[in-house]
Design brief:
Blueprint: H1 30-47, H2 56-79, H3 82-101, H4 105-120, E1 127-129, E2 135-137
Helix pairs in contact: 1-3, 2-3
């Protein structure tokens, strides 16, 4: 089975915070920061009792939350500074990670593998960027 999340916790009374392993903000630190964000979402869900695989009804209640974050990102792109755009983009990711964590872990792991493999296999020989800016299959 694939491990979706490795989360070290600080020891201490009442601590739910993931341990930071990097203070760098360069591009090379982004994977570590995304792992920390995943740990944060996991801890948030545990803190509020949002645990286990969600029912279809529960998953549907998450759509408006995701929509709100995407609308806020859209607004930030049009009207706010790059730092606000980055913050809103991370909010979108935070909720999306929460959606994944509410799925059956085995199904989520399989879907993650599938999407990673599918996108890693795309090349300029098989795909191009269309007028909308999306990478799509040639032909």
């Amino acid at each position: 089975m694939i491990q979706l999340l490795h989360c070290s916790r600080e020891s201490g009374e009442g601590s739910d915070s993931p341990v930071k392993t990097s203070t760098s903000t360069t591009g090379s630190a982004l994977p570590d920061l995304i792992n920390q964000l995943t740990a944060s979402v996991h801890a948030f869900h545990e803190r509020f009792g949002i645990v286990g695989s969600a029912t279809q009804e529960e998953l549907l209640t998450r759509i408006p939350i995701q929509d709100e974050e995407v609308r806020e990102l859209h607004h930030a792109i049009l009207h706010e500074t790059p730092d606000r755009v980055a913050s809103e983009a991370v909010d979108v990711l935070y909720v999306a990670i929460g959606n994944i964590l509410r799925l059956d872990p085995a199904l989520a792991a399989a879907a993650l593998q599938e999407v990673i493999q599918k996108n890693n296999a795309k090349t300029w020989a098989t795909h191009h960027i269309n007028a909308a800016g999306k990478v799509v299959r040639r032909g």
